[in-house]
Amino acid sequence: MSLFGSIGPFELAGLAALLAIGLSEGKTEDEVNVLGTLATAIGSLFFLIAAQMGINGGHQGGHHGGHHGGHHGHSEQDISQQIKELKLLVQELK
User: Fold this and answer.
1) Residue 33's Cα: distance from chain center in Å?
2) Is the dihedral of CA 10, 13, 17, 22 positive or negative?
3) N- to C-terminal Cα distance for the chain?
4) Can you tell me the distance from the alpha carbon of 61 to that of 59, in angstroms, rounded to the nearest whole number?
5) pTM higher than 0.90 for the full model?
6) Are the C-beta atoms of 63 and 75 separated by less than 8 Å?
7) How many CB atoms lie within 10 A of CB 9?
């Protein structure tokens, strides 16, 4: 929480507004709707992850249970696959 712990609630809301405006600029109504849906999905996943972390006592071990290594249970192959999927999503948004 150190990244967002020093930002006040109004500053965070302002940052979110600037991000939304910046990403919406020059887009069609349909594109903005897609961005809104994506943002909602991402937000829901943050809540899911936080809830799961709470159930697991705050551990961030990933999907490998009690693993506490430096890479938090994510192999390089998993991360590479996630990057590929994100790149595809970005291409679809363009």
Assistant:
1) 18
2) positive
3) 31
4) 6
5) no
6) no
7) 7
- Where do the domains of the chain lie? 2-93
Residue type, 13: A
Alpha-carbon distance of 36 to 23, in angstroms, equals 10
Amino acid at 66: G
Residues with Cβ < 8 Å from 27, sequence gap 6 or more? 35
Contact 61, 73 (CB under 8 A): yes
Radius of gyration of the chain (CA): 17
How many residues in the chain? 94
pLDDT in tens, 16-62: 999 999 999 999 999 999 999 999 999 999 999 998 888 877 655 55
How many C-beta atoms surround the C-beta of residue 55 within 10 A? 9
Q: Six-digit token pair at 20?
A: 């939304």
CA distance 24 to 22: 6
Q: Find all residues with CB under 8 Å of 32, minimum gap 6, and list them.
A: 24
